[in-house]
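If your schedule permits, I should be very grateful for your opinion on a structural question. I would ask you to consider whether the tokens describe a fold that such a sequence might reasonably adopt. Thank you for your consideration; the sequence and its tokens are set out here.
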Amino acid sequence: MIKILFADDHEMVRIGVSAYLSSQPDMEVVAEADDGTTAVQLALELRPDIILMDLVMKEMDGIEATKRIIAEWPEAKIIIVTSFLDDEKVYPALEAGAASYMLKTSKAEEIAEAIRATYKGQTILEPEVTGKIMNRMRAKQEKHLHDQLTEREMEVLLMLAQGKTNQEIADELFISLKTVKVHVSNILSKLEVQDRTQAVIYAFKHGLVK
């Protein structure tokens, strides 16, 4: 039997989901909690096989409860079951140590299958969550061309975006006109653009200038 602790502050949700899970031949809901503090206490006391954790609860939210459980019991298998898909919930929950992430809009049988899979050591994520994670990973892996610019070159680029001429840049930075031209040449090369206009467009496109 897969022993389950279900933490959710909505009584009707707990009643409905617990009844369905308890009807499964391989599952037993051994305890319920309506707040994060109680969830932590019961998790560490009972050491259930699976913890179903809501995110928004009174006294202590699901993210903090997950952190505290994992800190004391790293092997705990926690499945987030929530209505939230925003970044402020998804990433902190997974970083806190949640093994799987499901939505309350999932069918009861999908929750049951997620429990079985997580119990076996697998990670089950809603497709939307998987998409968010992949996009975040791609964003981290993407190398921006402007990351190659030196601090001075970035300063010159921003001044180009302000419409300043080479001479005006030289005067303001107290450097020679020749040095400004070298900086501009380096900027064009590193940003892989052909002229100053394209460099300025790049700066606005990538949020370097607002």
